[in-house]
């Protein structure tokens, strides 16, 4: 046969099967475009001219690996739907005399067409949107930069190599499937799974156990550090449980419903329940994938959106004052002199100082064991007890009263206690041989930025001046350098950005010239860093969210298509034996709605249960506005649910066209 014949046949096959090929090609184009965009943005030389551009580059570079892995898995997955529909066609070709090596050539021609179309259109769209996306990043992170059109040969080559390899592997898998199958198997390839599945009680029980453990971890964890490792364990357990419950658990539930005679022996329930039971074995993985992808979309969009919307709250939490000076200097006279010079600089620059906060504090790291705090490193198992590490910040009462404007009094070893991330349930704190009785747990505390940045939970304890001096003496004696005695001097100003930058430079020079053992942080100077980091996360979240939504749409589409072809003959037979069109429509509606919205409902439950755990993770990023995160989560779910309904309407219409009877 001439090679032109194979090419013509390949084009003809794609045209005849356009209902399944066009979405597959569009998936490839979109995935190529996304990969090119993220890779190109991560290597854009304009990032080198942006303050904090390295943070954005790192985030985007991480995203390229996620998209690459996703592309490999997802293109294989969607191709499996396509090949299943084509097996009968290949079986007919084989019976009519076309050898398997000729089929391999036809598949090669089809793969070449799909690969070329996906790469050409994907790269072209990627180049078109590259500049737009870069400007969007600059807008998100509030950076002004002029940049020309950027095209990287290296990025193009990497994209071509990656997707060329993926499509080659897909082709080899298709050829292998054709080679090992006989013509009869190919002819029946689209009708596999007609045998009634057995109820796998053990797997269903295992799925329920995994889900219970995963949910239990998400709901019971209270420590932010522990939440990091628990999160990944819980995610793995819930993913495994989702697959097990959709595959084994769904069949168990359907069989239990079948035993309910009042429910089962109704026309719409009888037929829809039987249809779902027979196909659940082959479609449960698709439903589980839809559920997991939906959960990922909701989590990703809600978290990144709340981070970027609440960026100002986050910055204020991390930097409670416009200017914060941290002094390690223990000599009070030298420290006081520097703070006075800073006040003088503000007066010289005609800058009004507001909300001044000044206090000494002692920082001690210890392991929490009930109401006792262990400071001896030799007695702490860091591997097992790292989630119990606490930063204890002690303040003298006089400094607290001066900064807060209150007039508190404490007797003996009484203490005012505050913890933002985790509530302390005990009534005493035992440290370095001293026992502090909690007189009151405060609702708020001024704190400082360094403590807020500490990944470990920080406990603030206000003690009497005598107890504070005794603590310093005991701490320096027993812990040495591990007892950090510092001073914090923070204040806000009425100055604009230009004046604040000038003042920051002058204060920096004072600290350096005075050989003062300390440093300064400014909210303005650190704001760009935060915008770059969180803006990069937001941008990546939107990218990956769009990618996962596309994956969800494609899986739903192919699921509806494959089920439509399988159900067409069944519904024709039903009408021949006496069912009316209205009854058949009601059966289809009941069957589609029951299965279609199950993943969305389960995804909503996953997100709701994971909310407390993710809230702890967000606290590590200084996102403590729980109300904002809750609102973003609800809005993300509502928008996704609306999109899900639209997808249902579009794919259901395709399903009805396939199973439509004359």
The whole-number mean of residue pLDDT values reads 78
Structural class determined from secondary elements: alpha+beta
Strand elements, count? 10
From the spread of the alpha carbons, the general shape counts as: elongated
Contiguous helical run count: 21
Beta-strand percentage range:
5-15%
Radius of gyration: 32 Å
Largest beta-sheet details: 10 strands, mixed
Share of helix among residues?
55-70%
First-to-last CA distance? 40 Å
Unreliable spans: none
Q: How does this structure look, described?
A:
With 662 residues, this protein is of the alpha+beta class. The protein is 69% helix and 11% strand. It has 21 helices and 10 strands. Strands 1, 2, 3, 4, 5, 6, 7, 8, 9 and 10 form a 10-stranded mixed sheet that branches. The longest helix has 54 residues, at 523-576. The chain is elongated, with a radius of gyration of 32 Å. The mean pLDDT is 78.
